[in-house]
């Protein structure tokens, strides 16, 4: 059987997000986030689930770090809960919240695991939402202040930094489709929010550089791949819109100093105008050290008028699907790497999320998730193809360490290498955990 080998300096690990795993939503001075409000609103999250307890990693982080250590992980990506630091978004600092993250980071460092700290993974303080949320430029300023606090506190402890996770979701899923907090359905609002998120990223990076913070800083971007159903120009352009909506809209301003005109025109056609103030693009175009790549799925697609925001429909071509319903399309992962390299040059890439939702069943104390292992094999093969093609890839982080609160899907969708019993909070290593442990130890996979 073929052996796929990875560079000896490849970074390996896993990723989580604060609201999905921490719990302790009302403990030690933490303020409300928009996800607390959204998840407690009837009908917004499946089964009425919420993140009040989640995996209780706030109290059980020692167990989670032991799992990382036994896995052999050398990087752990986590996010800081903004309302745990500033309960009202600005103003009075919460020392107990800061202490939690110091405890977490110090323990990781003790174990030889490099922390990758994400500043924003969607849990905006509700107090800021009440004042306009990301639609207000005041929130951009509040984020800059929050970022400065975290930079100063953890300078020297954290090697990898990320500003904002998946701004596409925070802008469009949250404010156009309404399926994520705060749950609005307004395209103009979504476009406004998208710009303010990119601007907030730029301001944070600017502060990072001015303070001469140690380490490398980047962002974490949604990526997907859409292959045209035919060579008709309508199909090609539809795919370009879908790929670009995920990638170009949020990375072009950083690397090119402008938004892609074809998407500006498209949004105007749909009734939303981009508003950029003087000086914004200079702030946004701060140099970053790496692109965080989040990839789960792709598809073959074609143009279909009045279908969603982008006039596009997916055409299923005998794909297997994960339990959340997403097609398994590993070749799209490789094409995303090529696309990023061609569009933005040879900036290093760090795979910050990749994983599969599977229908995990605990049988006699074990979870045999061979389907997840197969997913990882396919996608790590795509990573190797990219590396062999000369694309600089720093590392790979599996999503996720733990089964957790899967946003609007609640606890019914499991992505973890570790099974979590949400009644007892017991952690049980899945077969994929054992498999991934061998990958990290060996530096290769067999396919």
TrEMBL record:
PROSITE patterns documented for this protein: GLYCOSYL_HYDROL_F1_1
Pfam families (alphabetical): Glyco_hydro_1
EC number: 3.2.1.21
Active site (UniProt): 166, 353
GO biological process: cellulose catabolic process
Enzyme type, top EC level: hydrolase
Source species, domain of life: Bacteria
Gene Ontology MF terms in the entry: 6-phospho-beta-glucosidase activity
Binding site for substrate: 20, 121, 165, 296, 399, 406-407
Alphabetized UniProt keyword annotations: Carbohydrate metabolism, Cellulose degradation, Glycosidase, Hydrolase, Polysaccharide degradation
InterPro entries: GH (IPR017853), Glyco_hydro_1 (IPR001360), Glyco_hydro_1_AS (IPR018120), Glyco_hydro_1_beta-glucosidase (IPR017736)
Family assignment from sequence similarity: Belongs to the glycosyl hydrolase 1 family.
Protein known as: Beta-glucosidase
Organism of origin: Bacillus timonensis
């Amino acid at each position: 059987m073929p052996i796929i080998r990875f560079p000896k300096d490849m970074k390996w690990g896993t990723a989580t997000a604060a609201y999905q795993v921490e719990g302790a939503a009302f403990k030690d001075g933490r303020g409300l986030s928009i996800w607390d409000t959204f998840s407690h609103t009837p009908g917004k999250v499946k089964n009425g689930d919420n993140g009040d307890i989640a995996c209780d990693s706030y109290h059980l982080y020692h167990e989670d770090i032991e799992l990382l250590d036994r896995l052999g992980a050398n990087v752990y990506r986590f996010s800081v809960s903004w309302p745990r630091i500033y309960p009202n978004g600005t103003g009075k600092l919460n020392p107990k919240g800061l202490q939690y993250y110091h405890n977490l980071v110090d323990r990781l460092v003790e174990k030889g695991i490099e922390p990758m700290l994400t500043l924003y993974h969607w849990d905006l303080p509700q107090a800021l939402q009440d004042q306009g949320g990301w639609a207000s430029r005041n929130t951009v300023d509040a984020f800059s202040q929050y970022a400065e606090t975290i930079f100063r506190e953890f300078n020297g402890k954290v090697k990898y930094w990320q500003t904002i996770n998946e701004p596409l979701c925070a802008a469009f899923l949250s404010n156009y489709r309404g399926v994520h907090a705060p749950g609005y359905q307004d395209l103009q609002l979504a476009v406004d929010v998208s710009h303010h998120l990119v601007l907030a990223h730029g301001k944070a990076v600017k502060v990072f550089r001015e303070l001469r913070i140690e380490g490398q800083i980047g962002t974490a971007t949604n990526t997907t791949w859409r292959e045209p159903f035919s060579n008709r120009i309508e199909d090609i352009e539809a795919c370009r819109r879908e790929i670009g909506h995920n990638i170009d809209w949020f990375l072009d301003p950083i690397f090119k100093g402008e938004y892609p005109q074809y998407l500006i025109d498209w949004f105007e056609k749909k009734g939303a105008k981009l508003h950029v103030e003087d000086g914004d693009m200079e702030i946004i175009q701060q140099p970053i050290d790496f692109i965080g790549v989040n990839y789960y799925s792709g598809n073959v697609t074609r143009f279909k008028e009045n279908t969603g925001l982008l006039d596009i429909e997916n055409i299923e071509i005998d794909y297997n699907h994960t339990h959340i319903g997403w097609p398994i399309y590993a070749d799209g992962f490789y094409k995303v790497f090529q696309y990023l390299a061609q569009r933005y040059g040879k900036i290093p890439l760090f795979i910050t999320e990749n994983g599969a939702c599977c229908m995990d069943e605990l049988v006699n104390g074990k979870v045999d998730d061979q389907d997840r292992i197969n997913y990882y094999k396919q996608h790590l093969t795509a990573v190797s193809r990219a590396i062999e093609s000369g694309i600089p890839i720093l590392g790979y982080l599996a999503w996720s360490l733990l089964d957790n609160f899967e946003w609007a899907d609640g606890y019914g969708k499991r992505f973890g290498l570790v099974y979590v019993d949400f009644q007892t909070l017991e952690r049980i290593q899945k077969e994929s955990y054992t498999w991934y442990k061998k990958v990290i130890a060996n530096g290769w996979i067999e396919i």
